[in-house]
Amino acid sequence: MNGSDGLIDIGALPGRPCSAAAALQVVGEKWTLLAVREIFFGNHRFEAIARNTGAPRDRLAARLRSLEHAGLVERRPYSERPPRHEYHLTEAGRDLAPVIRALLDWGDRWVHEEPPVVMVHEPAAGPETESRGEGDGTHGHDLDTAWICRTCGEEVVRGTLTVDVRSPGWDRAGPASAPATP
Q: Which of 8, 84, 167, 181 is least enclosed by beta carbons within 10 angstroms?
């Protein structure tokens, strides 16, 4: 991490300058994303996160500390004696919800025959209402997500995306060649 702003100097990372590479510096480890998943599902206490991820306790504690340091998780006290804290996602942590959803979708399609977890969309819950993640599925429907372009309103489908590389000295193939000298 680069200073207290939580940003990573992508120029210091090996390879192509890329926000995905910088994001993976923060959340690119198995136990980190599984901890975010559990907190997203509404499990805020260490014991529940440890049980539901299967992570070794020392490794999970280290990942939660790194998530807190990165500004994705905040600790909130729930007991003074003994001192105990719950973990809650910050805005930056909640912004990982589409990543968790994408991993669930990919796993359902390519790794697991029957989805072990289904996201249910309950339209009555507006953006100001925080879902507790405990819907019984009787008042909503299975979530079927799509990428929608906010500029034109159209669904993004295969073949409609291109890559515009904006890092100086790079193009789609990699580092741009030095200009030929006459």
A: 181
Relative to beta strand 170-171, strand 174-175 is antiparallel
Cα 18 from Cα 166, distance rounded (Å): 10
Closest CA to 37 of 24, 54, 25: 54
Residue 61, classified by CB atoms within 10 Å of its CB into exposed (0-12), middle (13-18) or buried (19+), is: middle
Predicted TM-score of the model (pTM): 0.81
Closest CA to 145 of 107, 106, 101, 111: 101
Half-sphere exposure of 102 (CA within 13 A, CB side): 8
- Given a contact cutoff of 8 angstroms between Cβ atoms, the answer to whether 122 and 140 are in contact is yes
Q: How does residue 4 score in pLDDT terms, banded at 50, 70 and 90?
A: very low
Distance CA 28, CA 26 (A): 6
Cα 119 to Cα 121: distance, rounded to the nearest angstrom: 7
| Euclidean distance between CA atoms 43 and 45, whole angstroms | 6
pLDDT over 60 at 132, yes or no:
no
Structure tokens at 127: 């953006």
